User: Fold this.
Amino acid sequence: MSEPPFRKILVANRGEIALRVVRTCREMGIRTVVVHSTADRDSAAVRLADEAVQIGPGAPRKSYLYPAMIIEAALRTGAEAIHPGYGFLSEDPDFAEICDKNGIVFIGPHPDVMARLGDKAAARELMAAAGLPVVPGSAEAVSTPGELVETTKRVGLPVIIKAAAGGGGRGMAVVRDWDELLPAFRTTRATARGVFGDDRVYLERYWENARHIEVQVLADNHGTVLHLGERDCSVQRRHQKLIEESPAPLLPPALRDRLTQAAVRGAAAVGYTGAGTFEFLVEGDEAAFIEVNCRIQVEHPVTEAVTGIDLVREQIRIAAGLPVSLTQDEVRPNGVAIECRVNAEDPRRDFAPCPGLLTEFVPPGGQFVRVDTHAYAGWQVPPYYDSLLAKVIVWAPDRDQAIARMRRALGEFRIDGPGVSTTSELLQDVLAEPVFRAGRHSTALLRK
Amino acid sequence: MSEPPFRKILVANRGEIALRVVRTCREMGIRTVVVHSTADRDSAAVRLADEAVQIGPGAPRKSYLYPAMIIEAALRTGAEAIHPGYGFLSEDPDFAEICDKNGIVFIGPHPDVMARLGDKAAARELMAAAGLPVVPGSAEAVSTPGELVETTKRVGLPVIIKAAAGGGGRGMAVVRDWDELLPAFRTTRATARGVFGDDRVYLERYWENARHIEVQVLADNHGTVLHLGERDCSVQRRHQKLIEESPAPLLPPALRDRLTQAAVRGAAAVGYTGAGTFEFLVEGDEAAFIEVNCRIQVEHPVTEAVTGIDLVREQIRIAAGLPVSLTQDEVRPNGVAIECRVNAEDPRRDFAPCPGLLTEFVPPGGQFVRVDTHAYAGWQVPPYYDSLLAKVIVWAPDRDQAIARMRRALGEFRIDGPGVSTTSELLQDVLAEPVFRAGRHSTALLRK
Amino acid sequence: MTRTFPEITPEEATTLGGLGAEDAMAILGHSLAEAVRAAPQTPSRAVVRFGCASIEVEWPVGTRVVESAPAAAPPEPAEDLAAVVAPVVGTFYRAPEPGARPFVEVGDEIEVGTQVGIVEAMKLMNPILAEEAGVVAEIVAGDAESVEYGQPLLLVRPRTEG
Amino acid sequence: MTRTFPEITPEEATTLGGLGAEDAMAILGHSLAEAVRAAPQTPSRAVVRFGCASIEVEWPVGTRVVESAPAAAPPEPAEDLAAVVAPVVGTFYRAPEPGARPFVEVGDEIEVGTQVGIVEAMKLMNPILAEEAGVVAEIVAGDAESVEYGQPLLLVRPRTEG
Assistant:
């Protein structure tokens, strides 16, 4: 066993991703510190970590989004690096810079790169300049009604207005008619200001029947940029991904090559390092870049399942200055992997999150099934955070078998508790949907 | 999705393997009937099955070993085939024949083949005739003290005396000194009579520092015989396997080829069909056949993890007369897989089984970890059966990472209950053992 | 004697700051038991609540008042019927052959060893014999019904010993 | 015959979070049992509440007349100490600078707003102010000790209101 690249890593996140990161650290012989709110005191990640530091109350602003507390905990415990997971501070260039100033390695791309890619309008410009196809839209943030109308005229209805600093499906509005345009503009800006503290919005052509396809890249500080193939994340509910898979079904090989090459070119152009995702919309043979996610994604396990590569391990190695541990030729995706997100949400109340006590929680198991979850029987799902309870990932030699396996896995998942509902049934309905089984679905699948 | 090869299968087993078989049936769209004793009424397999039939009390003789009840349940529920799992009736040619007479497909090799291979002395003769290297020993069962002494002189001490009908590590004795020979002979015969109802024993040279290596084969009714590589099962405690892995560490490629080819040749020679395992002892460059297991093995998941092949699916397809679903060239083992058996046994009481209530049971999860278990929190481990609680299987690109991953996985496994102890700590000790980590261990590892 | 107490909202329920609900309930339950044990008299009602979950126990008033109890008729004991169960998986028959009279009917007096039915398994007719003397109270398995091991076929009210 | 126990608001429950909600609840539950045991007569009703959790016991009125209990001295009430907790992760200091006199010592009378220590985090000195008047009962965090959010620094015996 070789020397671990760090002796101690602080995990600045919670839930399944905190546990996910701790697991890889343990496998690498790296000690872990998990910071947590009072609401997560009994979490699975805290249980498994070598050390835990309580940094604040349940409300994220005062704990997981509070850089000073996290840095303080890192300095105090002697952590050499911080893994930010996804969400929270994972794409915050300021936080990455604070880490840097305090002599702590931020496990992610350079703050400058994150800043440039974090502004989605700017990222589109950057990628267009690097030769990537982009969706027709505003070159920069749209700030006046005049610019709004002019850009809309140019790209044509329908359009989608998005918060420049947005993410996770929030701060977006689709406009199909001219008279919806100005109200949507106002609402989106207000949301963007409220949620992200930044009211800049941009606008792009809305593709009604597009597929959401993203390319996973890994880039190190030695000039290597690899792609690990693509993921199809077209099954979405209000821009929230529900099901992800790799490879993308029915994607023409030439188009796949164009997308993966574009992602590699884009990553190289901005000096990207670490694990990142280039997102595209695809309709027929047309493809357009939408944004880069400068972090590990919720759906990274599907790529792990088809490539056998532990992405968090690579992130850590790259952050320590080591080269990516394999070459592009050695990346040989095999078979099909699908991930389903099981959320604690109530379908009868428009998928409102339903925190509460889990009296029963028996995840599926057996052949070619992976479950990433921080939940357990007796755990109280706190009300402060996202509603993700578990990710179920299956692998199979082909897509039909993978779908059958996922249906089996979801079918044996036992979750119960007073007031707890999950998205499991919705997921099973989608898996049984002929258009999904044929691989001919788009992001419009759940829009009906 | 193609038509399933059977409409309904009865699973004549319990525990994790019954659940394992039900899972594959569900994935194949085959309905399942699980027969069970009163002690397994609340088992995970019963919960997941489409139908369940209670066939007898906890004692196996009156339930899982009672052919008439199982056949009656199959006829009554309209099951077209019976999957026997491992243990119980899985290698009983009479049971296979009764199935056949009742128009039910027995998922396993032909009864004649099972009968010939089930007598271990006869199997050795058969394989020697097919050109396989065999351990020096008695050509047939040894029935008189005269034969015993004569054979022992010929092969040389130490020898091992084994029940011809034995299995699972029972009915075996190692003899290192002449004065132990006759007492061991008597004891082994008595055990063999008591446990297997057949007092024939045979004798072979005992290899003190051998590795236990076995080859997985798949053979169909169309003349195809494949091997799926080998497994190393050298970590044993009193002939009970604790840890299995694939590929076998440090096995010279030429020797690996000899073993896999011998297994294929042997399977072809006896007209083997279904999934089977050819077991060998290996010491240095020497290798010798020991026996064939005519069933799915406990450790089959390690082969599944490196090949991506669902072995139970292949068993079912073959039993339905379909060809094996891939060619030898398409079998491309990748990476390293390790399985650990977590048993409910008390290390302080010489690993006596400790049935009881599980108050806490949270298996490990996450990247590249598979758990096959029928246990759950709140389940009462019954006293009638073997003590296997869970199989933890990990995959990694190389053996070092696989060991690190297994240590992580066992470390996060939470099992508790009044009076419940497990082998988890022993397993972790073995994983940390330098000789194991170097891959230089033999079956002598735990003999100290 | 019953009062109503303000309901606790889920929001309040989570303000316990991460204390595992199981632990909380265990602690609460313990305390309740201790409280009940501590009192020289049985409470009339006890409630344990944690968020939306609750345990509520009520004791009937006057059950432990011993001195004044009149010699009432002993309460009818919960009917203690014995089940005759299927010894094998098979088909239950009430009569020796189709159209024949059933072995027993409800109300029949039976002795140990009285045949009460047949379970056919693997073409073998297994006679089902009573293991207790008494009166047939109910026949719970239908004629020609498929039965599992241990499944009740009929219920017998055992003969009282005096 | 109703005994009331001090109610704890959800807000207090969370600030006590650092004290260990489990401990707090166990103590409360114990107190109930103790109170019941100590009382010369069975209460008609008792309530313990902690945030959203509550234990509630009612006894039937007047069923047990205690004929001989002498008027025992009322039991010493369980000490109800308030914790001053760390508002941030950092280093706790008892004194304004090394070698200086500590802000407070055990036995000191303090008012709302009295500075009782410092928690240094990110080179910022966060003054720790008492939120309740009373007497310092115990200083539980060591000087220059690393503390987490919510960790108790010192315990205060609140001033009784009369």
